[in-house]
Amino acid sequence: MTSVQQTFEQLVSLAIQREEEAYNFYMTHAEEAEFSSSTKLLKDLAKQEEGHKAKLEAALKQGVCTTFSCDTVEEIEKMDLSQYLVDVPLAPSSSPQDILIVAIKREQGAESFYKALSELTTSGPHRAVFETLAKEEEGHKTRLQNMYDDIFQPDM
User: Fold this and answer.
1) Which pTM was predicted?
2) How high is the pLDDT of residue 68?
3) How is the chain split into domains, by residue range?
4) Neighbouring C-alpha atoms within 13 Å toward the C-beta of 100
5) Position 126 pLDDT exceeds 80
6) 63 phi/psi in degrees, rounded to 5
7) pLDDT at res. 92
8) CATH level 3 topology of 4-152
9) Roughly what angle, to the nearest 10 degrees, separates helices 124-152 and 36-61?
């Protein structure tokens, strides 16, 4: 029988895994980017994802999973929080446009996930961590959308 705390630990662990994947995703595509401005942006995003992973690991160590306000595992499962952390696959042949679309979707999902966690925690310091992560992911999404517009819709 999985406890509420274990369920949240699994979710936060999944978020840590997704941050690692985001880091690798950005670094891989930074190497392949055609424009130096794109390379710089992707490396910058990768570095920030590394910071997110560290914040999540610290929160996990500080017992963040005991601060969430859900009474049952079923209650958590109904929220379907893991839907926000879907891994959108990319083919090796993916175009730069595909890569940006996937990156935007990943950032949107991470933002929604962290917002949901911030609303569930009863701990002020932990709520602040999740709110910060949500804002940073929103910032990443905006930067990626701007990059997308600059490259693929320059005349708009």
Assistant:
1) 0.86
2) 85
3) 4-152
4) 19
5) yes
6) 80, 30
7) 65
8) Ferritin (1.20.1260)
9) 160
